[in-house]
Each structure stands twice: as C-alpha cells, then as structure tokens.
Write a structure and sequence with these properties.
It is a single chain. The protein has 521 residues and is mainly beta. The chain is 4% helix and 49% strand. It is built from three helices and 43 strands. The strands form six sheets. It has a 28-stranded parallel sheet that branches. Strands 4-3-6-7 form a four-stranded antiparallel sheet, with no helix packed on it. It has a four-stranded parallel sheet with strand order 12-19-22-25. The protein is globular.
Length: 521
C-alpha cells in the first residue's frame, strides 16, 4: 500500500495513498510515526498528522492490516522561527469576549517563518487579516467563532478608481462583479506563503436569525465568506473544519497556487448560497481530500461576469480535484455560470458525489461573452450515488435580471458575436452512476455555437426504483424528466465507448442537431 507526502509544514504532514480507490480504500491500515501508532484501522486515502516538531526527521510507516504489508517514507518537517500564542496577546477563548484585536496583533507581530498558535477555546472574532510568510495553527478543540453583529465587520469596497483614473483597484466582489462586500472571517489581500492548518474549526455562526435571513437583499454590504483570498499566492489550508458560513465558504479570487487539503466543509442543506469552494479567475489549485456537505454547489469554478471577464480575460485554469467527497449540494463540480473569463484544464478524479442534485454541471448562456471559453475538462474514476442528473451542460442558464429575456432563451440560430460563449472538449471516463433520478446526461448547446466535443468511455448509469421527476437544466421552458437516458442537442461531436444505460424509460439515446455521433459498445 504505497503512499506519498503531498503537504508538509513545520508542524504537520498530509499523506495520500497511491491507489485507484475513490476517497476510501477497502484495505484498512494503521499509520505509525516513529513507531508510535497515530491512526488505527483507517480507510481514508488522504489523512493528516499534526503535533509535529519543526526541522525534525520522521519515519512514517503504513501497515495494511490484512496483508501486513509495510510501506515506509521518511520526511523532514519545515523550519519554524518562533511561536506566538494568541493568549499571550490577551485572547480569552471564552466564547464571549471579542478576541479579534488580540489575534490580529499576534498575526501582525509574527515574523517570517513564525507560527501563530490558537489553542483550546472558543474565540469570538470579526474578520482577521492575513500577512505573508506565516503559519496559523488552530489546534484541536479550538474554534474561531464569527461574531453575528454585521456592524462590526469592515467593508471591502468593490470598485476603487486609481488616482490618475487609468485603472481601478478591486477589493470587494459579489457573484462575479466588483461590489462592496463584508470582509470574511479569514481575509487575505495580496499575501503569499501562508499556511492555515490544524484540527480546529472555523465557524461562521450563521443562521436564519442573522446572515441567512432575507439573504437576497444587500444589507450594508454583501455577505462575507469564511475564507476570502484576493490576489494571493502560495496559500495552503490543511486539516480544518469549516462550517456555518454566511455565504460561500472558500473563495480564492485572482489567486495562484492554492492548496485545499484534507478539509471538512459543512453547511446545512437549506442554507442559501453556501457553496463549498468558489475559485474565481484562479490558477494552479489543488483540491485534495476535501469532504463537502453544503447548501449549494460543492465546488463552483468561476471567472467573473461580463465586466470582469472582458476586462481581465483571466480564466480559471489548471485545477486538480482528487479524493473529494461531495454530499447533498446542488452540484458536485460546477463550471459557471459566472465564467466570462473562461475555464480550462480542469481534472477531477477518484471522487464520490452523494445525493447532489447534479454531478458535473456546466452552466452558461448568451451574453457571457467570447472570452467565456470552457475547454479541456476531464472527469475520471468517479462514483455518483443518488445524483439526480449526473452530467449536465446547459447553455441557456437563466440567471441574472436579463436571464429570462428572449435573447437568452431563444432556440433560434442567432449570430455569433462578442457576446457568445463557447464550450469545447469534455472527457468522461470510468464513471459509475447508481440510483440516478432525472436523467443520465443532459447536454444542450447553442444552435449557433454547438458544444464542440463530448467523449464518454466506460460509463454505467442505473436508476433508482423510486426515481423522482425534475428538470435537469435550469432554463426557460425546461423539460422535466424521470429516468431519461442521454439527451444531446446542438453538439458537434458525441463519442460513446462502452456506455451502459440500464433501466431508463424511453430511448437510451436522444439526439437533436448532433453533427457526428459514434457509439462503440
């Protein structure tokens, strides 16, 4: 049972099993650190070890319980200059005292390669701002608890013109536009080389009594996220539980080389707009070993609405999503709908989607613009359990005030111009969908800009005996279905190889306006 170290800091290590299993392995194992047992009868592919010492060499030994096969890896932890305990700065951790200023002081006072330590306790806070080149460790039995008084939250202005009026500075953002928003519980602006680690909890303390009440109405500013990273680089979150966010949980924005490793992201299923992770115009993200259970999309990849996409032309690109478990969200991995800067080179593998409304979900529409190009998207070795519609690509998504206009919903062939988005190549391989409800696949391109290419290989879809009825795609005049097979409309090339649809009602394959169709059993 081979494994590798995928993240190490001065105080922690994350390992990942090298197998083909999805999230969990059937072969239980014990994990030892310097011959001391740290994990017993474990089955997760991704696990983390904490409470280590800086600049120390450790021997990690993994023993498969049944076969007794051993694998040993040696690793040395990183350097650490100093530890600053927030209680030394006056933080109480009693859940009643506002500890923001004490913790912020520790962060600002921390030197390069230093650690800010948050030990056992409940620390009531408003937004904390990061600085570069430090580690923040939130220990087991420690919780950062968000204050519910929005009057205490600073506002990040969305649009700030340069003094010479040649450009603008953007701090706040809301759903793809530069708009005023509250600073988030953890806010990073133009910082780099930061680790936020530990077995503790970031709790936004949100509920329908405060942040979620009347959530569609702006109240002073738009709701904060749990973690907001604006123009940041080399940031790692490892081991934490993140829960009860006022809005999106994790929001990296125009940022690069970000790692989300071995996290738990939890929000109630009925909480509004509490997406798990929304990377926006970012590049080189690793999302590994994350367990999502949220009130909206689990992972929603974005690149701005029309203004931001056209101005910056920065796609979200080069993402790796691996060994993640998505539960109960609206979508497992979602692309769009704010995608005017484009999305490309996204790979998801060895993941499980459980009871999400949709598995892979692509949503765009006319008006997103010619820079709204989605291409080179790959899903491999995925299990989808009780997912209503495993594969959905919809180019008639009806969001926004103009989303229900005739220009968006018309099925007539309109001119291709600077407003027309593009969906390129999609590759799906070795995917099992069990207890499906509405439809196996629903692909609907524009008549003037068809979906370029869809390749599906080694795909099996079965249906729930009590399958419900619903609309696979959110679009004007959407059809409702139950146990539908593969529906494809306005697609240039659809290639199926060993695709099995078992138990559908009606035709297995429904094609309209598909230029090239290949089906190999």
């Amino acid at each position: 049972m081979k494994f590798k170290v995928i993240v190490k800091t001065a105080r922690s290590i994350t390992i990942e099993l090298e197998n083909k299993d999805r999230v969990y392995t059937d072969k239980l194992y014990d994990l030892y650190v310097n011959n001391g047992l740290v994990l017993e009868r474990e089955n997760r592919n991704v696990v983390s070890i904490f409470d280590l010492q800086p600049e120390t060499e450790y021997e990690l030994k993994l023993i498969e319980i049944e076969s007794k096969i051993e694998e040993v890896v040696k690793v040395k932890t990183e350097k650490e200059l100093v530890t600053l305990n927030v209680k030394k700065f006056g933080a109480k951790g009693n859940g009643k005292t506002n500890d923001t200023s004490a913790i912020q002081a520790a962060i600002l006072a921390c030197p390069d390669n230093g650690r800010v330590l948050i030990e056992k306790g409940v620390f009531l806070v408003t937004p904390l701002f990061l600085k570069s080149n430090i580690t923040i460790e939130i220990k087991k039995d420690a919780k950062l608890l968000g204050h519910t008084n929005r009057e205490l939250y600073p506002v990040l202005p969305g649009y700030i013109p340069y003094t010479d009026e040649t450009d603008e500075y953007n701090l706040g953002t809301w759903e793809g536009n530069p708009l005023d928003c509250f600073a988030s519980l953890i806010t990073g602006i133009n910082v780099e080389n930061v680790n936020i680690i530990g077995e503790g909890i970031l709790d936004g303390n949100a509920s329908f009594d405060n942040w979620w009440y009347n959530h569609k109405v702006k109240n002073i500013a738009w709701r904060p996220r749990m973690v907001f990273l604006n123009n940041c680089r080399n940031i790692t979150l490892q081991g934490l539980t993140i829960q009860n966010s006022p809005a999106w949980n994790l929001h990296p924005y125009f940022s690069s080389y970000i790692n989300f490793i071995d996290l738990k992201v939890n929000n109630p299923a009925d909480s509004p707009n509490t997406d798990g992770l929304d990377p926006e115009s970012c590049d080189h993200l690793n999302i590994i070993g994350v367990n999502f259970s949220v009130g909206d999309d689990c992972i929603a990849i974005k690149s701005g609405k029309i203004y931001m996409g056209k101005k910056h032309k920065r796609p979200s690109s080069n993402f790796l999503i691996r060994n993640c478990h998505m539960r109960f969200g609206h979508g497992g991995v979602v692309l769009g709908s704010e995608m005017s800067g484009g999305i490309q080179n996204i790979r998801a593998e060895r993941c499980i989607f459980t009871e999400t409304d949709r598995g892979l979900r692509i949503k765009t529409r006319r008006g997103r613009g010619e820079d709204g190009v989605i291409k080179n998207i790959s899903f491999e070795n995925i299990l989808m359990e009780k997912v209503y519609a495993p594969f959905v690509a919809n180019m008639f998504y009806y969001c926004d005030p103009d989303g229900k206009t005739e220009y968006v919903w018309s099925k007539e062939k309109l001119p291709v111009d600077e407003r027309t988005p593009y969906l390129g190549d999609f590759h799906f391989k070795n995917i099992d969908c069990v207890d499906t409800h509405w439809a196996a696949c629903f692909f609907y391109g524009l008549p003037e800009q068809k979906i370029k290419e869809i390749n599906m290989e080694n795909i099996t879809v079965t249906y729930a005996s009590n399958a419900t009825t619903g609309a696979p795609a959110m679009m004007t005049d959407a059809i409702t279905t139950s146990k539908m097979g593969i529906y494809a409309n306005n697609v240039e090339k659809l290639c199926l190889k060993n695709v099995k649809i078992i138990g559908q009602e009606g035709e297995k394959i429904i094609l309209h306006n598909v230029d090239q169709y290949d089906n190999k059993e």
